[in-house]
Amino acid sequence: MSATATPARDRALSPAQVRLRWRMGTEARGLILVMAVLLSFGLAVLYSASAIDAMQRNRESWYYFARQLSGVGIGMIAFAFAAKLDAERFRAWAWPIMWITIVTLLLCLVLPESIAPRVNGSRRFLFGSSFQPSEFGKLAVVVWTSMLIVKKGDQLRRLTKGVLPFFVVIGLLDVLAALEPDLSVAMLYTLLLAVLLFAGGVRIAHFVTLCALAIPVLWHKIEKVQYAFLRLTSFLDPGAAPSQVGYQLKQSLIAVGSGGLFGVGFGQGRQQYGFLPFPYSDFIASNIGEEWGFLGLAAVTLAFAAYALLGFRIARQARSPFLQLVAVGLTFVTVITAYLHVGVVIGLLPTTGLTLPFVSYGRSNIVLTMFLTGVLVNIGSTKERVIGSGATDPLALPAT
Question: By three-state DSSP, how is residue 393 classified?
Answer without folding.
Answer: coil
